[in-house]
Amino acid sequence: MDDEELTEQETALYDRQIRVWGVDAQRRLSKSHVLVSGIKGTIVEFCKNIVLAGVGSLTVHDDRMVTEELLSANFLIPPVENVYSGKSIADLCCDSLKDFNPMVRVSVQKGDLLSFDVDFFGKFDVVVVSSCSLSTKISVNEKCRRLSKQVAFYTVDCRGSCGEIFVDLQNYTYSKGKADETVECLLEYLSFEEAISIPWRSLPRGLSKLYLVLRVIEQFEEIQGRTPGEISTADFLNVQKLRKELCQIHSLNESEIPDSLLQRLLAGGARESSPVCAIIGGILGQEVIKAISGKGEPLKNFFLFDAMDGKGIIQDISQVQAPETEFGMGSVERVENIV
Amino acid sequence: MHFSFSVMASEQQLSAIKGSKVLMVGAGGIGCELLKTLALSGFPDIHIIDMDTIEVSNLNRQFLFRQSHVGQSKAKVARDAVLKFRPDINITPYHANVKDPDFNTARRHVNRLCLAAGVPLVESGTTGFLGQVTVHVKGRTECYECQPKPAPKTYPVCTITSTPSKFVHCVVWAKDLLFAKLFGDRNQENDLNVHSKDGSSSSKQAEDVFERQKEENIEQYGKRIYDHVFGYNIELALSNEETWRNRNKPRPIYVKDVFSSELASQNGNLDKSSNGDPPSLSAMASLGLKNPQDLWTLKENSKVFLEALKLFFSKREKEIGNLSFDKDDQLAVEFVTAAANIRASSFGIPLHSLFEAKGIAGNIVHAVATTNAVIAGLIVIEAIKVLQHDIKNYRMTYCLEHPSRKMLLMPVEPFEPNKSCYVCSETPLDLEINTHCSKLRDVVDKIVKAKLGMNFPLIMHGSALLYEVGDDLEEDEVANYAANLEKVLSELPSPVTGGTILTVEDLQQELKCSINIKHREEFDEEKEPDGMILSGWTQPRAAEKNGKTAVDSEVSTSSASEAVPLETEDDDDLQIIPTITGKKRKLSDISNETKNKRKAEELDSKNDVVMLDDENSDMSKKKREQ
Description:
The structure holds 2 protein chains of 2 kinds. The termini of chain A are far apart. Chain A contains 13 helices and 10 strands. Chain A has helices spanning 8-13, 15-29, 41-53, 68-71, 81-84, 89-100, 118-121, 134-146, 192-197, 209-224, 236-249, 259-268, 274-293, and strands at residues 33-37, 57-61, 105-108, 126-129, 152-159, 162-168, 171-178, 181-188, 302-306, 311-315. Chain B has 3 domains: 16-152 and 366-419 and 542-625, NAD(P)-binding Rossmann-like Domain (Rossmann fold, 3-Layer(aba) Sandwich); 165-348, Arc Repressor Mutant, subunit A (Orthogonal Bundle), CATH 1.10.10; 429-535, Structural Genomics Hypothetical 15.5 Kd Protein In mrcA-pckA Intergenic Region, Chain A. Chain B is globular, with a radius of gyration of 27 Å. Chains A and B meet through helix 1, helix 2, helix 3, helix 12 and helix 13 of A and helix 1, helix 2, helix 3, helix 16 and strand 6 of B. Chain B: Zn(2+) binds at residues 143, 146, 421, 424.
């Protein structure tokens, strides 16, 4: 079964990407099963990317009915009411995604994400959750971790001009091409709960402020029982209060979480920016492809992007400080002009 | 409290977007992503140009296209697909039908038109996981042609003809020499035969070898060619012992060695299978070889070689003499793969699969959807800044495969215009030339067109017009310019000698530059084959390491109407490295076609950006009327 060759049709369709990641990776992709939950702009971008890449199957989960807000960054659904009325967003996206690549099985899963048991998640190789509460993220992550099989877990969310990806690959081995030989490398990941519980003061210097701001907002939504993103500048004073408390717990100076950034994220609310969705959905797609194929160094364990400064940063949030990532081939000549 | 700031900012953004007009050049890999992201971001008026039609190998990333669209115009299909989810915006497609053979020239052309029109250009490119977005705004940032570009890698002629050490050398030999010799224009100069030091191989005799004799059947002919290029020529090269003192000696390969006794029966099989089937255009198919990823043995390569040659001569005889290598021509790819592998066997170089050989021979760009999506997002972010004239926040952004300073997306400040750029500043160029030997035609062809990339040049010496191109010239002018072309520079009506300053202008591009002429008697034929040297000029942009491809999008704002052209090309199209496919060139300027797959660093271009032909000619007319 593992030696199964790609068909002529697959070779022709995937020609350009096989030249990037090789036949073995393509074969592994075509046998992988991916679950996504919470379909907004970023997830739509992600789904497009992995369906095009040729995963074996994609299961989409989101029982919400279509609203205008959900359509704002979604290119899978025509904004025609008689097309979308009465159907869930997952149903509509599924129909459209099937069309992108006939070789990928796309299906819909209904039900409450929290009600799915461990075995359910065992059917997948990759689980991506978005637009859900902190406790749901933690719960799904834990269920994935309880399986004997390694299931890659991701969370992703965009707010206005910012976006964040979290990655948990548990104990992950990948091969890295060095000169002419390939070396096996091992990475150890924390769960989402473990990662966000690390005291802020013990995090590396130069930590992205965006990381902290997102933790404050996430906590606020959780405490208040708000739908993710359902938060606005009207909540600013209360969010500031929470920031103060959290900073005390973590022994961190409040100035590490600047008002301006906090305001900007609150003002954005749940609204997504299409360019940011494209960027975050693209990076996430790439990471999932890496994880499935076992080729290339996956990011560990947060990725943060802010369109205001244009930086897309990898942040390693783990107790044991990993050694600095070496400067790879990607290093750029004109670095002196870094903003 | 001042938290209204961000809300205000986004309202301003929105109104800038609402009043914009954008031109995209290219509806390929980045183009599809960009069109989608622009539409979702609320851009109301988008114009898109692409001359390409859809191919199967586009479908893995150009997500607006489906199998059923293969063969149709990219620009038009992309428009229809986006209108399905954003029916209320205007998208105007242009399927331009003039194919510019040189992608580089097209890109430079767009740069010049944008400079001339004062329209900002957002340009981008991707290859594999690498990508880049750059903003070019006249007078504020560097233009596309400001930076000296690394010259494309070239191979010494003798490496290709006599001492290959890498598989790519064998591919170049098979494609540019052997394939061209057998199926292309026979009169074209070709270094196929081994240069032996003693000069014993009379080229006259060698030429005849490639002619098929009367009464010679195809099998015999194929075997004779095989023995000549893989056997006899190698023996001849071996006789030059100096060459092999520090190298491994190649092994001559003859048909009889490869097939030994079974040849007869093999041939029988071949004939049978190819006769039974409808005319097969694939040697692989008639030999029962299925997987393009497989490595063929020397024997299999030899069979493919002979079978492909036979198919060319039996099924495609009419094309012989006019063929040039095309990566989409299955039979041509099979022939080149087999020939390259046989040569590689001879020289002890590892063999490669057809899939790999095709990538090398066809300069095929590595492309994935995710990088294009990321780059398209970055383009739109820059485009919005440009619309808001938010100059201090313009950034050039790299998308990296491996993080650098923890960054996968790395913004840098844009570069200032290069003060000595002949395109966006008015710095004169220097031309060393023998003014007593070189004709005006040489200057027009080798300098003005080839190096400066002008399409409709006008050349002046002081106020004397020496040369001009255009539709609206009088007959006597045309005759006069034609006569000037054939004149030696120093004998022109207004003589051009050392110290002369020529003015060269392209009205369409609104580009004007001065050339200081310096007389020089002698040029080295090998090193300076043009017989003239232009300085102050930069190489057309070639892809650089770590994926600094120039690519494609352009935003433009004009003060009055807020036109914002974004132009894009696709990964394939994005690249900027000159490609050598198709056109026959001298080996000496063959650009590197190496693909370092692992690093995916090399970029090349295959496609051509389509220009607005109509608009261009309008522009030149207007200028003339003034």
